[in-house]
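Researcher: Structure prediction, please.
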Amino acid sequence: MKNTIRIFVIFSLLLSSCYNKDLCPDCEIQEGLSIKFDWSKVAPQPLMTTLVYNAKGELVKKYQVPEGGKDISLLPGKYTIVTYNSSSDSQWSGENSLNTLHVTSPDGDQAGEKASSTYVCGATKRDVVVKNESGTEQVISLTPTEITDHYTYQISGLSSLGDKVTINSVSLSGLNDGYSPNGNSSVVHTCTVPFDDNDYDPQTGSLSGHMTCFGPHPGEKDNVTISITYDGKQVKIPVQNVTEQISSSTDPHNVIIHIVLDIVDIDFDVDDWDPQDPTDIIL
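Model: Predicted structure follows.
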């Protein structure tokens, strides 16, 4: 009986002291990892949605990671980790596959338009190798950067119109409607986005407004369309091309668009306005 007890105790010790893969080669042991954020590029976010994809691009884990980080566990292997601020969750879709994961601006009021986006920041870390190292913890550092851009416009030259001006809309075309962490161009399209909080200052004759967007779409022209009402009549102003201003901005995440309108010789007969003739600026 004593021998039986000794054998049982020895066998129990072997089980507890040996690494499981030695006793069960086919068993897979999850390794401990620590997700940490480097907040040197953007303001710290209270919560980050963090997605883990395997080598095939399939979603295997999803975490809500607080600002200070989180300990997680994964099977040994190679992964891609995508993280973004959780406050933008409602704009993300296609998360089951790395290739289809993308974020888009909300739909606008008009057909074919998008609305200003909520702020989005995030990071993508590829080729994260989780090793079979029992007793050690790997640290995965992620550095979120801005994904969305903030655009502001300033339009001057309307001081002679006094306080009879009402802004209907100011919009910018040639923009991306979203962003794909995997660079999948098939899920990102060109769009037009209206500016928010449009304001007219009758003292200076200037218009201003802003938007949050996903930046210019490659190969597209960035045109500002301005629609105002003057003295109760609909006004149309020729499209203003601002492609060069946007592309040459010193800070692509904070772009200020300047437009100066010349209305000295403008005829206010709206019925004569010819949209095909850029020299016929009729208000």
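Model: Residues 7-27, 272-283 have pLDDT under 50 and may be disordered.
Researcher: Thanks, that helps.
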